Amino acid sequence: MSVKSKFSLLAATRHVGWGGLGKLRLILEKLPQARVTLHGDEYAIAITKQFLGPQHAFDENPPAKFDVALVINDPPAVNGIADLGAPTVFVDSLSYVRKTDAEFPPLDRLAYYCAQRYPNELLPPASPLLRNRENIRWIDQIVPMPQERRGGSGIVINLGGLYAYNLAGISDDLVNRAVDSYLDLVLFPLVRLLLGSNRKILAICGNINEEGCRRLRAMVPDGVAVGPQPGEAFERILTNADLLISAPGSTTLLQAMSIGLPAILLPAQNRSQILNARIYAKPGADLMEWPERIINDAEFERMRLQGVRAVYQYFYQSIIDAASSKELSDAVANVISKAVFSAPDDGILNPALHALGVTGADQVAQLVEQVARRDR
Question: Where do the domains of the chain lie?
Answer without folding.
Answer: 7-143+358-374, 155-354
